Amino acid sequence: MAKGMGIAERVETLIAPCVAALGYRIWDVEYVKEGAEWYLRITIDSDEGIGIDDCEKVSKAITPVIDEADPIEDFYYLEVSSPGIERVLRKPAHFAASIGSEVELRLYAPDERKRKAYTGTLLSYDGKAAVVCCGGEEIAIPCEKISKAQTVYDFSKNINKEGKSET
Fold first, then answer.
1. Regarding beta strands 117-125 and 129-134, do their DSSP bridges make them parallel or antiparallel, or are they unpaired?
2. Which of 80, 104, 107, 135 could lock onto 59 through a cystine, CB 3.0 to 4.6 A?
3. How far is it, in rounded angstroms, from Cα 140 to Cα 124?
4. One pLDDT digit (tens) per residue for the chain, 167 residues
């Protein structure tokens, strides 16, 4: 098992009650090395959306919890953020929450249709395959072939006739 994965799972278990008590959900926890630096990335979500004040509130609340348990030996940077509009889907819960949404599924290698990616509505996910509707056709893509999955937001839907954002 990768070093970061075990730590991420431990940290998520530690901070989950604290994050929930503040009224947020944990979308993801990653412990990753970029260059010479380690990053503990906590991604939070809520039905009302996430702003910078929410991230700051969670950061201040979870820092003492993490410091007391001390699950990380290395020096690391803590980042708390929103999953954003275009969300990376890594866990079964991410896929379940995104059913009915527009998604892009990138493949490790071109498939039998010679395609390396599919964009369409996520119809279902069972842990073995994701089913997307692309151009009216339902396509089942085995999970082991998916290198990256994320939701896709159509920004053009929120632009009025004058080219101005309506959000």
1. antiparallel
2. 80
3. 9
4. 355 569 999 999 999 999 999 999 999 999 999 999 999 999 999 999 999 999 999 999 999 999 999 999 989 999 999 999 899 999 999 999 999 999 999 999 999 999 999 999 999 999 999 999 998 999 999 999 999 999 999 887 765 555 555 54
Q: Buried b / exposed e across 44-55, counting CB within 10 Å, b at 16+?
A: bbeeeebeeebb
Tally Cβ neighbours within 10 Å of residue 152.
Answer: 14
Question: With contact defined as beta carbons under 8 Å apart, do 150 and 103 qualify?
Answer: yes
Give Cα 12 to chain centroid, integer Å.
14
User: Which residues are 124's β-sheet partners?
Assistant: 131
- Using DSSP, how many helices (H) and how many strands (E) does the chain show? 3, 8
**Would you state the structure tokens that stand for residue 4, as one six-digit string?**
């970061």
Torsion of CA 22, 26, 27, 28, to 10 degrees: 140
